[in-house]
Amino acid sequence: MKKLGVVGSGSMGNGIGQTAALNGYDVILYDVAEAQLAKARQSIATSLRKRVEKGRMAQEEMDRALAAIRCSVDLAELADRDVIVEAVVEKVEIKQKVFSQLEDLVGADCLLGTNTSSLSLAEIASGMKDPTRLVGIHFFNPVPAMKLVEIVRTALVRRSVAEQAKAFAESLGKVTIQAPDSPGFVVNYLQYPFRLNAMRMVEKGIATPEDIDTAAKLGLGHPMGPLELQDMVGLDVTYYATSSIYEKTHDPAMEPPEILRRMVEEGKLGRKSGQGFYDYREKK
Ligand code: CAA
Questions:
Q1: Is it the case that residue 1 has pLDDT exceeding 80?
Q2: Residue 117 annotated in active site
Q3: Which of 96, 165, 171, 212 could bridge across to 135 with cysteines, CB 3.0–4.6 Å?
Q4: Rounded-to-integer distance, Cα 130 and Cα 58, Å
Q5: Ligand 1 neighbourhood includes 185 CB (under 6 angstroms)
Q6: Pick the catalytic residue: 11, 14, 188, 244?
Q7: pTM of structure
Q8: Closest by alpha carbon to 19, among 4, 32, 30?
Q9: Beta bridge partners of 114
Q10: Is the predicted pLDDT of residue 265 greater than 70, yes or no?
Q11: Is 188 annotated as catalytic?
Q12: Exactly one of 14, 47, 115, 117 is catalytic; which is it?
């Protein structure tokens, strides 16, 4: 059984852990706080239970997946892993620290991937003794449902490492594309301007969130509207990601609008806080 370590147990990290456990991996989910890990385990159990209730999965499969995931607050437990994916907060210094610790901990053959969506891989790798071993393995939210993984390569990454990353993503049933180490990679370079424009339309009073989302779903065939999606992903995530891309590129399409900054300041972060472009407090 292949051994996976996931560093960071938020929605991306626990989604990656869940998907890997369902695909036969032995998983250790690492985080700094027990409370965060308890939340992650709960969220994985809820997601699996829904699939069992819908008849999409047998109870035994759910039990097997849960048993394959161990939670730990001790990074040293990741020493024997074949693959480690980092999915911590989008702060370059924190990611650099994680990889320099991991480099000293794991064997030379362990695949080291980052799930960053908005930071420069080259910058993360610049803090490593061997920057040729870091590759981007970028999943999408919700990880168990989204088929795509972007394999992001720096100019330095070894070809064999990128090939291993592709094989790892495929072993989870995902389809990969290659993306350059440039702001937004491929998917976010496409989708952020769309989502930010939806927010600008609300800000300018051009249309309501409901009408914008209905337009995207029924007029463009999107599975979710941009503002519903925004609430699912988290307004803070988009604010920090687009701010970081905008600082680097000064591309006006990536500039976070005032409404986004204000809502984040007010703690309206989407589903997770109970309020975003929609109100979830009744349904919580
Ligand atoms: N966890 C696990 N599985 C989930 C899930 C979750 N949170 N949400 C949905 N699924 C699974 C369901 O179990 C279901 O699986 P089965 O077909 O095996 O039953 C499947 O996904 C479809 O779900 P539903 O039938 O419940 O609902 P749906 O058809 O409305 O699809 C959706 C839900 C997959 C989320 C769909 O609305 C969708 O694709 N939305 C767009 C999501 C998107 O754009 N994601 C990208 C976000 S941006 C990003 O991630 C970039 C970044 O860098 C942060």
A1: no
A2: yes
A3: 165
A4: 43
A5: no
A6: 188
A7: 0.94
A8: 4
A9: 86, 136
A10: yes
A11: yes
A12: 117
Burial-class residue 158 by CB neighbours within 10 Å (0-12, 13-18, 19+): middle
| Structure tokens that stand for 110 in this block | 């362990």
pLDDT tens-digit readout, 99-138: 999 999 999 999 999 999 989 999 999 989 999 999 999 9
Nearest one of 166, 167, 222, 163 to 195, comparing CA atoms? 222
Query: Which region holds residue 189: left if phi is over 0, alpha if psi is between -120 and 50, else beta?
Result: alpha
- Ligand 1 lined by 183 (C-beta under 6 Å): no
* Token reading at 125: 């790798």
For residue 232, give the ligand 1 atom closest to its CA: 47
Dihedral in degrees, nearest 10, Cα atoms 269, 271, 276, 282: -130
12 CA to centre of ligand 1 in angstroms = 13
- Strand bridging mode 148-153 / 134-138: antiparallel
Per-residue CA distances from 66 to 42, 60, 142 (Å): 10, 10, 18
pLDDT digits (tens, 9 = 90+) for 68-86: 999 999 999 999 999 999 9
* Alpha-helix residue ranges (DSSP H) falling in the chain: 11-22, 34-53, 59-67, 92-105, 121-125, 159-171, 187-203, 209-214, 220, 226-233, 235-249, 258-265
Q: For residues 270 and 231, is the Cβ–Cβ distance under 8 A?
A: yes
The angle that helices 187-203 and 226-233 make with each other, rounded to 10 degrees, is 110
Index of the ligand 1 atom closest to the CA of residue 187: 51
| Inter-residue contact 110 to 81 (CB < 8 Å) | yes
